[in-house]
Amino acid sequence: RTQAEMAHTCRGTINLSTAHIDTEDSCNIVLSNGGRTYHLKANSEVERQRWVTALELAKAKAIRMRNNQSDDSGDEEPASQSDKSELHGTLKTLSSKLEDLSTCNDLIAKHGAALQRSLSELENLKLPAESGEKIKAVNERATLFRITSNAMINACRDFLDLAETHSRKWQRALQYEREQRIRLEETIEQLAKQHNSLERACRGAPGLSSSSTGVTSTAKGSVPSAKGEASDEDEETEYFDAMEDAPAFITVTADPKHHRRSGSNLSGASEGHPEDWNLEDSVFESSNQSSYNESTCKDLLPKKRRRTRIPDKPNYSLNLWSIMKNCIGKELSKIPMPVNFNEPLSMLQRLTEDLEYHELLDKAVKCESSTEQMCFVAAFSVSSYSTTVHRTAKPFNPLLGETYELDRLEEFGFRSLCEQVSHHPPAAAHHVYSRRGWTLWQEITIASKFRGKYLSIMPLGAIHLEFHSSGNHYVWRKVTSTVHNIIVGKLWIDQSGEIEIVNHKSKDKCQLKFTPYSYFSRDVPRKVTGVVSDAEGKAHYVMSGTWDEKMECSKIVHSSHGSTSTEGKQKTVYQTLSPKVLWKKYPLPENAENMYFFSDLALTLNEPEERVAPTDSRLRPDQRLMESGRWDEANVEKQRLEEKQRAVRRRREAEAVEALEEGEDYEGYIPLWFERKVDAVTGELICVYKGGYWEAKDKQDWSSCPDIF
């Protein structure tokens, strides 16, 4: 009982922690506490002994609880009390067991002494010789038992003393670690506040930013000035560490008109001319006018009016038990996942969302330099992740043979086609043609691994981009996406890894690094950095930004060897001109939080359209029902479609077995609009568009399409 319980007990209650337990005879127990005494009678001596043992253990526990409560009482805050109880939980359990052991030792000693006295009394009685010998034998055995018990008691007492000593040491050590942890957290929080205040002060005082950054650069040993000689470098020049050491960049705005080249204090491994950074005619300047300015220009073009909203997401609670009880006795592959986890778009439509910032590729066509063009391609590769920052729901898995078209030829000059070409493993082929001078194609297979607290999603497959006039052929692969707090907490998504973009014609390269989120990092979240270099390895541009907001590009005018890192590698320091904004994320539409955080493009992807193929994702009934807010009907329809697909798969498997028995080859599923070929650039087997879809659409001849819905 706690002290609070003891203060509100019934009349006649005895506090065991201060009670005295004794025995009168073979069956009676005396329980007393001050002026109150109870006489209890057991049925037998064995039962009496069981009760005495139980009461002694309960008394020891009551004493221990009273001591713990007196130790814990004080002026501590509630938070510290909970931390302390959590910290010492294990020690209290150990102490409890040791107290029980000590109580048992005392009982053994007490009852052993009583047995010894009883046997001595019997031995002193006048009994026949035969009885005396037996009593003597019993007495000898009792003596041996007493000696053994005493040895065990001494060993237990030694163990108890040792355990108590170490328990105090562990308690002090744990308390010290707890205090150290609290101090460390307070220090980190204080440093973060100071860092934020310094950043705000630096942004608010542009006159001081250049001088303070200059001190930082000199302190790091990046670009020191020669002694006795005034540096003729502009203080507002930017300095970037080289990409190979995954650096943190130091950014300061520079004025290229006043920039002068210096040979006295920069050992230039590569040099560029500031006059090449043409502010009037460069394609970069047109992109520096914020990307969503172009979105306003789109409204001036004659185009079909698209929808700007969808029905709000219903606020349905997810009953996990209702899902689990429907899964009992079923195979794992046959368990239907409810649409509560989905968003009303298919994976094919999500893949098409990569084209949201297609104007970056339209601008890249106009670039005369392949390294300039690489900058726009790099910005485009990063822009495809901007829609994922709030989109934690999973898209619908496409059915085998499902397609999705996005025909924006008249509005934006491109048309896109996706097809689900494999179901196990799931793979989608994508082809985009733009009459503004580029073609993009890819085959993406999604691999995922559940790692306890988070889910890693790894897109496998290369993305190809070719410009018609120059013949520049770019290839890159996607990074890993990670969904955190799968079990408990609010879901959030992070992107991490590296992208290497290669121009297989000019051999230019761009190394992009997606920095994973870290609580202890001083960098901005979702940071992306990179360097664009030519075939000789000479760096031309530095890329920087975040994958959810914008990407900037800075032209390198000098590079030099800086200080040596802690790993023993010598860093390269890039001196750049002021950055140009290549890409900036469009703002989300109003009420986006109630529309699955869809962007303007995503809101139009599932809009019903005429003349599309009967296998188009827009015609998928479960997805359409979910978008309309009819989730229960959507779940039923989703289960029907999945069972229909399983029946088709079983039929194909039976056909394959039959063909094998007859010694014939079985080709399996053959994609309708794509065909598998060995890519000449990467040497990989990839699904490429073989033609015929848009011609079939013009004729409205869909006779070759399978019935999947």
3D structure, described in words:
The chain is an alpha+beta fold and 709 residues long. Among the domains are: 16-65, no CATH class; 307-657, Porin, CATH 2.40.160. The chain has 17 helices and 24 strands. The longest helix has 76 residues, at 129-204. The radius of gyration is 39 Å and the shape is elongated. The two termini are 66 Å apart.
Show the helix and strand layout:
Elements: H1 3-6, E1 20-23, E2 28-33, E3 36-41, H2 45-72, H3 78-87, H4 89-124, H5 129-204, H6 206-219, E4 238-241, E5 270-271, H7 283-288, H8 291-298, H9 320-325, E6 342-346, H10 347-352, H11 359-365, H12 370-383, E7 394-396, E8 403-408, H13 409-412, E9 414-423, E10 426-434, E11 438-450, E12 454-460, E13 462-467, E14 473-477, E15 480-484, E16 492-503, E17 509-514, E18 527-533, E19 539-546, E20 550-564, E21 570-576, E22 580-584, H14 600-605, H15 621-627, H16 631-661, E23 674-678, E24 685-689, H17 693-699
Parallel strand pairs: 6-7
Antiparallel strand pairs: 1-2, 2-3, 4-21, 5-20, 8-9, 9-10, 10-11, 11-12, 11-13, 12-15, 13-14, 14-16, 15-16, 16-17, 17-18, 18-19, 19-20, 20-21, 20-22, 23-24
Helix pairs in contact: 2-4, 4-5, 11-12, 15-16
